[in-house]
Recover the amino acids of this structure.
């Protein structure tokens, strides 16, 4: 599993785009009515995004790898990492589930989601193997207290009170993630409207989706401009 995780880690940035291709793999909808699925999916995805925002804003973990291999300078155990060892991956998977539910795609829900769960499990195994080798007993003590994926809310208020929130870092680190999944979500809902034969520019839902897409793109462009000009820094 560790060997597979190291391999997938090298190409992890391509996993999300590859997975999103399959949300469009349908000629008919899994659910008869796409509207409840779109709403439920949005709630799940927003929960995942909120988890990512909270994690990055409190105590960000720099584990981006080095030379496309697992690497970490420090063992980060503060912020939400004191309640879950992998809150960012949990957030990612919730976003995947949310977009998948909204897509009404059987191929995505029953094939891609399990495969992505396996991929994340392998990557986490590879990362933990690296951290155990580097930090030894300190890491072992950490994993005894904090669950790998389940979030423990006990003591959360104390964690939040003792830390400041870093909004500039959230903007710099998250604008790309926000764009990718929100555009994907809007696109699959648009596709479902089309498949249902209800696509019409006079439809309030279609109007809302196009306006939301415009707002998201503007946010992305502004955030990217601010980052490139170093007006805000992570």
């Amino acid at each position: 599993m560790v060997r597979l995780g190291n391999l997938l880690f090298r190409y992890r940035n391509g996993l999300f785009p590859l997975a999103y291709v399959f949300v469009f793999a349908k000629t008919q909808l899994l659910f008869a009515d796409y509207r409840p699925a779109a709403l439920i999916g949005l709630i799940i995805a927003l929960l995942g995004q909120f988890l990512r925002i909270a994690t990055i804003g409190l105590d960000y973990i720099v584990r981006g790898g080095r030379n496309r291999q697992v690497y970490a300078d420090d063992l980060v155990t503060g912020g939400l990492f004191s309640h879950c060892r992998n809150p960012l991956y949990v957030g990612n998977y919730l976003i995947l589930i949310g977009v998948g539910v909204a897509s009404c795609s059987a191929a995505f829900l029953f094939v891609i989601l399990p495969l992505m769960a396996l991929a994340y499990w392998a990557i986490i195994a590879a990362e933990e193997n690296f951290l155990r080798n580097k930090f030894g007993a300190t890491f072992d003590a950490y994993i005894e207290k904090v669950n790998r994926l389940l979030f423990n809310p006990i003591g959360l208020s104390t964690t939040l009170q003792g830390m400041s929130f870093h909004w500039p870092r959230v903007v710099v680190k998250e604008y790309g993630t926000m764009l990718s999944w929100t555009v994907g979500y809007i696109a699959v809902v648009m596709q479902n409207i089309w498949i249902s034969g209800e696509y019409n520019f006079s439809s309030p839902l279609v109007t809302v989706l196009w306006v939301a897409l415009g707002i998201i793109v503007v946010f992305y462009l502004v955030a990217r401009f601010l980052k490139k000009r170093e007006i805000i820094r992570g």
